[in-house]
Design a protein that fits this description.
The protein has about 500 residues and is an alpha+beta fold. It has eleven helices and 14 strands. The protein folds into three domains: about 10-120, no CATH class; about 230-355, no CATH class; about 385-510. It comes from Tortispora caseinolytica NRRL Y-17796.
């Protein structure tokens, strides 16, 4: 007898026919559930329902529609449940049949009665297929070879990247040392720091008192593929000298930035050195200005005010770089160059002092502090000398012109003075009028220790040589006026000339 096995569920019609016959009570309940209530049924409505095949009333039709939808869904659900049950039972039968080949009792216990009747126990067997050892070894060798190939590829790629990186590093290093060599040959100072080799643009080794380790490192710029400077400070201010007259600027000057024909790094280092020198110059001037308060030297913010006359001042300001020297002045340029040159001279003297052999231990000089720069003092001396010499020269010129207009021979000369103290450089004024002469030593030194501003020696034919000391140009002019008055009066009266009403002579001479 043939046995058919299928995963599809059985036909619902056949399944219903195979069901046992229902009792009368069950049939009535089923008819009521499918037909609906028979409470208000009549013979006419029943005939219409039989003829049309549809419910007689709207309520009956609605209930019939709902019942048909529910029955349809129920049938589908039962169909799925039956298919699932059939598949599970079939799978269980196959497993039970396999188990029965090994353990008959256990297989028969879980086997369906139909399968147990139709198919003998243990008729379905199974066996495990084992792969040979050679195949496994070949697979292992293939996997190992694959891993080796992947490792070799990764190693080759890493070596390639390392080679490219090493080549790039060699290029960077070659360019780095060529830049170092080029700048070193141009006189740029090098310094070894904990961070590496650096360029020094400070003046510590040149005699500066400012212990500012201003250094610059070469830093890679991957954008431009070149080196750029990484500096420890970025100062951008300069020392500007201005001439102020009655509160108005009549002249100014500042040293312009240095120009270099080399690479941009050299230009940046020169600019940084320039700004550091300007900073140290104003720092030394500020410290010196504090010691000159008694001489009307003021320090307001970043400006040093040095008066020349009652209406003219010299302002030394530490500020940002002006656009241009709009009011260029030879005097301002001279003062600026004098300040810079004086600081260089102080650096040189300080460097020689540091390298000199130290004094003995028992010497008193060992505890003495090194003297600071006298830049503003020297500037004041020069300005005082110029002012004094100009005032005396103007006075002598006026007197000589008056004397010559009166017919008296008169001449005067100004020549450098070779003697005197080291603290000041006076000028020698030689005046010869008629039969006597006046020798004056005009000093530009400030009246710090009550040193006379003017020392005059008057030569008179009588043989006496009186000496006078004066502390102002006005006192010296009074001396000249007195002796000129005496000389002119005696000379002119001897010629029969009356000078009492002469308008050509200064009032102080009459």
């Amino acid at each position: 007898m043939d046995v058919s096995i299928s995963l599809d569920p059985p036909d619902p019609v056949l399944a219903i026919d195979a069901l046992p016959e229902l009792t009368l009570t069950e049939k009535i309940a089923k008819i009521v559930a499918e037909r609906g209530s028979f409470l208000n049924i009549t013979e006419e409505t029943l005939e219409n329902e039989i003829r049309d095949g549809s419910p007689a009333t709207l309520a009956t039709k609605h209930q019939d529609t709902k019942g048909s939808l529910k029955a349809e869904k129920t049938a589908k659900l039962l169909e799925h449940i039956a298919a699932t049950k059939n598949e599970a039972a079939l799978a269980l039968d196959f497993i039970s049949l396999l188990i029965s080949a090994v353990r008959p009792a256990a297989g028969q216990a879980s086997m369906s009665p139909l399968l147990h009747q139709r198919i003998p126990t243990g008729s379905l067997g199974s066996d495990t297929s084992r792969e040979s050892r050679n195949v496994l070894e070949q697979d292992n060798l293939a996997v190992s070879a694959g891993w080796k190939i992947e490792a070799l590829k990764e190693a080759a790629e890493s070596l390639k990247l390392s080679s490219i990186h090493l080549q790039s590093e060699v290029q960077w290093e070659s360019k780095y040392w060529s830049t170092i060599n080029e700048l070193s040959n141009k006189g740029q100072a090098l310094k070894i720091t904990p961070k590496g080799l650096a360029f020094a643009y400070t003046f510590i080794d040149s005699g500066s008192r400012t212990l500012d380790p201003s250094v610059a490192f070469l830093k890679r710029d991957y954008t431009s593929k070149d080196f750029e400077l990484s500096m420890t400070d970025t100062r951008t201010k300069v020392t500007v000298v201005r001439i102020i007259k009655c509160g108005e600027i009549i002249g100014e000057f500042f040293l312009s930035l240095p120009t270099s024909s080399g690479p941009s790094i050299k230009q940046d280092l020169d600019n940084a050195t320039y700004y550091v020198f300007e900073y140290e110059l104003f720092k030394e001037l500020s410290e010196e200005a504090f010691t000159m308060r008694a001489y009307n030297v003021d320090l307001i913010d970043n400006t040093i005010i040095l008066p020349i006359t009652d209406t003219i001042d010299i302002n030394i300001e530490y500020c940002e770089v002006p656009e241009t020297n709009q009011r260029h002045s030879p005097l301002a340029e001279f003062i600026s160059l004098l300040l810079h040159t004086s600081l260089c001279k102080f650096f040189d003297e300080n460097r020689k002092r540091e390298k000199a052999v130290p004094p003995p231990v028992n010497s008193r000089m060992i505890s003495a502090q090194p003297p600071g720069p006298r830049i503003l003092h020297n500037l004041s001396h020069v300005i005082g000398r110029v002012i004094t010499s100009s005032a005396c020269s103007a006075l002598l010129k006026n007197i000589c012109e008056c004397a010559q207009s009166a017919g008296v021979p008169c001449h005067w000369t100004v020549s450098p003075f070779s003697g005197g103290s080291d603290h000041y450089s006076p000028s020698e004024l030689l005046l010869s009028v008629a039969n006597f002469s006046i020798m004056a030593y005009v000093s530009s030194k400030l009246n710090q220790d009550k040193t006379p501003l003017i020392k005059a020696s008057v030569l008179i034919p009588s043989g006496s040589t009186p000496e006078f000391s004066f502390y102002s140009v006005a006192a010296f002019s009074e001396l000249l006026a007195y002796y000129f008055h005496v000389a002119l009066e005696g000379e002119l009266l001897s010629k029969g000339i009356d000078i009492s009403g002469n308008d050509n002579l200064p009032q102080r001479l009459i």
